Amino acid sequence: MSRRVTSQDVADLAGVSRTTVSFVLNDVHRFSIRPETAEKVRLAAQQLAYYPNASAKALASNQTKNIGLIISRAPQYIASDPFLPQILSGLLDALKENSQGLLLEWVEPGQQLQSYLELTRAHHIDGIILMTPRLDDPGLRALEEADIPVVVMGYIPGSSLHSVDVDNITAAETAVNHLLELGHRSIACITNAALPYTSATQRLEGYKSALQKAGVEFIPELVREADFDIQSGYRQMKSLIESAQEFTAVFVASDNVALGAYSALGEAGLSIPEDVSVVGFDDIPLASFVTPTLTSVTVSGQEIAIESYNLLTRLMRGEMPEFRSVTLPTRLIPRESSREIGRRGKRGAEKKSAKFVSCFNDQ
Amino acid sequence: MSRRVTSQDVADLAGVSRTTVSFVLNDVHRFSIRPETAEKVRLAAQQLAYYPNASAKALASNQTKNIGLIISRAPQYIASDPFLPQILSGLLDALKENSQGLLLEWVEPGQQLQSYLELTRAHHIDGIILMTPRLDDPGLRALEEADIPVVVMGYIPGSSLHSVDVDNITAAETAVNHLLELGHRSIACITNAALPYTSATQRLEGYKSALQKAGVEFIPELVREADFDIQSGYRQMKSLIESAQEFTAVFVASDNVALGAYSALGEAGLSIPEDVSVVGFDDIPLASFVTPTLTSVTVSGQEIAIESYNLLTRLMRGEMPEFRSVTLPTRLIPRESSREIGRRGKRGAEKKSAKFVSCFNDQ
DNA sequence: AGCAACTATTAACGCGCGTTAGTAATGATT
DNA sequence: AATCATTACTAACGCGCGTTAATAGTTGCT
């Protein structure tokens, strides 16, 4: 309950003015200060365990030392996201060095405009990183016009906002090409999210493009839209299986969703990769630990986070007025879940391989 | 670049004083205000798209409207945590209703004291939720003495801090009892984290206790310490397999770690549950989608988050001076990964079941 | 001695808001 | 007519800090 320690207290103890304290503790070299004085001040500050009040500092300096990470997705979709921790990990690490804070926000679709306005105007934060943007986000214009640094994780065509992203289209093409090279011709696709999310659209784009370049017909019935979480992957794969469509491989644009697909395939008595090859996307840590290990496209959440943060930092320092969009590299990691189309490649419920089925039927 | 809109602007436009604006927008009923006046003010505020400056508000009112979630773990361990998103999801949801913000912080072991002091003194936040506390955290005393509301997710024996946790000991006992009831007598244990983390110690405690009550000898060589992530689960399980110790079941105190164990078992040619039964902890969403589905103990991250937030809210309102510690229920969810000790229960590298091996050797 | 050119320090203002003490106007009561 | 309550509002202070303009003290040079 002891009164709060202010810079005045430090000044009194050190026998100097509050201004001097401020200069010393903020390393203001414009006004020179005798080393002994500085030392006295530092000692007094330490002795009193003085920590400058964040709000006062923010008000006076017009800098909050916080950046905001905005997730435009409802909490229930956040709960099972294996990718978010990577982003957070990268961001927190980078922020620590500059002793900045991370303010987490989610905005519900429909409330974007107002939320963004409040965020930028209320000035809780110095800069914004926008995650999982939607093409149809009505608040993006407001962000473009707001005079606060913004970096988008992901690509918004036609937007003037700075962005960091992987080349989703090319990456998806590479993934599908991998399947094509293995001899697959009937390749299904399950998106990572609903199509208003740009990454989903782009990855689907890459899928189509790869097929086209290989001269393979695009069959809309082989495409399903998932919704971030495992359940949706399970559902959509089940839907694919139940449809009469034939396919020997599937490109699932999210590892998380792919794991749901694994489950549905197993339940239907289909073996991976004997009956169906699977390629995922994101290369989450788990990908190399599931059975069979999952072929995937590396996307380092940490890297995206760090790159976004670096870009944001430069914007906050007032550098770089010109437009810039960073594209990070991806790499296909072939693992066990994809293999050459085999002799037993024709699928059919009656030809179930015994290998994985047992686990589902025994108990 | 347009100047910031202040409450003075709103006052001018509405033709009243700044004070009146403040009263209207903050719903201060102590001073009555004519409805028409209030309406004028509200209209003006909306017209100017006025959002009160957060820092100024915080400084004047001594309330930041932010709470801090503190993770005492290094970022690399955050990256693959499947439990964190659940916590965040729950917290974000609850916070939204009170239009509060969430400030994320990690403190590195060794820096706790200073970090906590800064957090509490700098007053960036109104309240603290402390995740994954360590028994040996030297900063806890500082938190106890600081006059800021604190809720700990987890249990710290002997601490006066309010806390929310599941009954780790009982839950672990239940998990191990489940294995005992299935006839297992040689049960290994892999902890979820290093023992300074309280949950790890407690779950190990529950494991020992269950064995003791069943009259089964505790064999230290059957215990391994993992470290949050999948890799550590893989390593520790490998270590167990390579040791000469016999076991027919394993209690892994974290689903995430258990998935690593899955991988190591598969690689060694051991089938789950034919050769080794596995019980996890946390019931992450993935648990019901892996092959075989993982028997686990439900711990709802969302619930823990919401309960912690509720407790914190009451503390921040100044209620409840008395000590309180909330314990949330857990439930064992039997799935495919655990079954009665079988005919083929004796393990040995030469008796590998072909089922899972194929995936590792074929490509 | 006299003036300039530093160096070291501080008084004082403003950031935008919440809030207390006080004023002015109106109606009710003696 | 004078007093008192009530209503509707405002002037003015303070939150704790950063920062500018100004002030005292010191040295160097002619």
Supply the CATH superfamily name of the largest domain in chain A.
Response regulator
| Biggest interface found | A-B, 74 and 77 residues
CATH class of the largest domain in chain A: Alpha Beta
Count structural domains of chain A: 3
Report the C-alpha radius of gyration of chain A, rounded: 26 Å
CATH architecture of the largest domain in chain A: 3-Layer(aba) Sandwich
| Largest sheet strand order of chain A | 2-1-3-4-5-11
Largest sheet of chain A: 6 strands, parallel
Structural class of chain A: alpha/beta
What's the pLDDT, averaged over the residues of chain A? 90
Q: Can you tell me the CATH topology of the largest domain in chain A?
A: Rossmann fold
Shape of chain A: elongated
End-to-end Cα distance of chain A, whole Å, is 60 Å
Instruction: Please count the beta strands of chain A (DSSP E, at least 2 residues each).
Output: 12
Order of helices and strands of chain A: HHHHEHHEHEHEEHEHEHEHEEHEEH
| Beta-strand content estimate of chain A | 5-15%
Low-confidence runs of at least 5 consecutive residues of chain A: 343-363
Oligomer: homodimer
* Distinct helical segment count of chain A: 14
Tell me roughly what share of residues is in helical segments of chain A.
40-55%
Outline the secondary-structure elements.
The structure is a homodimer of 363-residue chains.
Chain A: H1 7-14, H2 18-25, H3 35-48, H4 54-61, E1 66-71, H5 75-78, H6 84-97, E2 101-106, H7 112-122, E3 127-131, H8 140-145, E4 150-153, E5 162-166, H9 168-181, E6 187-191, H10 198-213, E7 223-225, H11 230-242, E8 249-252, H12 255-267, E9 277-279, E10 296-298, H13 301-316, E11 325-328, E12 331-333, H14 354-361
Parallel strand pairs in A: 1-2, 1-3, 3-4, 4-5, 5-11, 6-7, 6-8, 8-9
Antiparallel strand pairs in A: 10-12
Helix pairs in contact in A: 1-2, 1-3, 6-13, 9-10, 11-12
Chain A binds a DNA duplex (30 and 30 nucleotides) through residues 4, 6-8, 16-20, 22-23, 26, 28, 31-34, 37, 52-53, 55-62.
